[in-house]
Amino acid sequence: MPDVVLITGCSNGGIGAALARCFLNKGYIVYATARSLKALSDLDHPNVRKLVLDVTSQESVAAAVEQVYGETEGIDILISNAGFSHVGTLLDTPYEEGAKVMETNFFGFVRLVKHIVPRMGKRGKGTVVAIGSILGELATPFQGFYNASKAALHSYTETLRMECTHINVKVVLVSPGSIKSNICANSHYTLPDDSLFKALEKQIRFILFQSQSEEFGVMDTDSFAKTVVSKVSSTSPPQYITLGGFTRIWGWLKWLPRTTAEALLWKIHLKEPKSEPKSGH
């Protein structure tokens, strides 16, 4: 039987869908998931299995995983890609909105790990891939909860990798920069009329589209997917992968003193954008 991969967040036009297509082209059985089957309509292949999976729901995760294990010998590769993007200042973001970001981007991965990795450990094989972000390594203004969710994801993934060496399960952290996707359409934006940051509204709104702009070297989704799939499907996958727009500059910023890097990032984000770039999709 071909190897089996489970991928979360495979909605049309996104990174997950591109990853699914690459795995299908390599002969895998792909369990592509999203919160609705309608969102998976672009995936059409004999080896694709479409499932409804909401990573914020313990019951949904458990049901989807049980179905996969009931139909196969086990999951060989898990790709945790489902994500929730939010733009807004920390002071203006309601607690409930911030919690939703953390529930999706961080605890969603934790739920998947709890249900799948012990079974991988019992088989003595498997690869877990977490899709993080360069913003989990160095924070930027106006995306505080997204930054925090990815930073938590990175730390959890690195700890998981060390612990999983004992059970022969490989863990890979992917830290993308700007990748063309449907993220703009799914982003949430918070800036109330009485905000103390109202004077910076143009700069804050620009963040919604920034990652999709040519100015920031946005990477083609399919190119990103091909590289990631090639690396994580190898017998010895790397522990860490970073690629996409802005990653080279990010690498340089991370080597600077923290105060210097933060000052530069704040100065960059204070600039008023010339125009609102178009999204990738």
TrEMBL record:
<dbReference type="InterPro" id="IPR036291">
    <property type="entry name" value="NAD(P)-bd_dom_sf"/>
</dbReference>
<dbReference type="GO" id="GO:0016491">
    <property type="term" value="F:oxidoreductase activity"/>
</dbReference>
<keyword id="KW-0560">Oxidoreductase</keyword>
<dbReference type="InterPro" id="IPR002347">
    <property type="entry name" value="SDR_fam"/>
</dbReference>
<dbReference type="Pfam" id="PF00106">
    <property type="entry name" value="adh_short"/>
</dbReference>
<dbReference type="InterPro" id="IPR020904">
    <property type="entry name" value="Sc_DH/Rdtase_CS"/>
</dbReference>
<comment type="similarity">
    <text>Belongs to the short-chain dehydrogenases/reductases (SDR) family.</text>
</comment>
<keyword id="KW-0521">NADP</keyword>
<protein>
    <submittedName>
        <fullName>Uncharacterized protein</fullName>
    </submittedName>
</protein>
